[in-house]
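User: Can you help me understand a structure? I only have the sequence.
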Amino acid sequence: MPMRPKTTDSRFRRADQATSEAPPLLDLLGRAQWLAAFDHRVRQQLPADLARGLMIANVRANALVVTTSHPALARRARMEQKRILEAANRFLPEPLKTLTVKVIPPATGIETSVAASPPSSVAIEHLRLAALALGDAEMAAAFASLSQKP
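Assistant: Let's start by predicting it. Here is the structure, written out as tokens:
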């Protein structure tokens, strides 16, 4: 495996140091990569309409956990349990015996119940000082525009 060239950018050095000092983080990243690849392989074995709406969320003990945002598709997945488990078991050393289907509503925009109010004079002063302190002209202009009284 080719080695990645050393970088002088401190952000990347900190990230490299964090992952080398945190094996659990590497384990978690490895698990996420494995799960993504497993999800891709299993969904290729399923009918297209079923595969599009399902996502493998976890494999634990002898159970496969899949998610969908559509209740009708969840019902179909439960009816197709045998087919889904057979597709998944092609890629595992120990067979899965149960399927859990969870319906997760699609994400919606962030709702705010409080009307936006103009920034206080203290907030405006902090934004003005932050704009002056920034080295990036574009960000400084953005902060400066936020610091203008309405």
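Now, to help you interpret it: The longest strand covers residues 55-60. The mean pLDDT is 79. Let me know which part you'd like to focus on.
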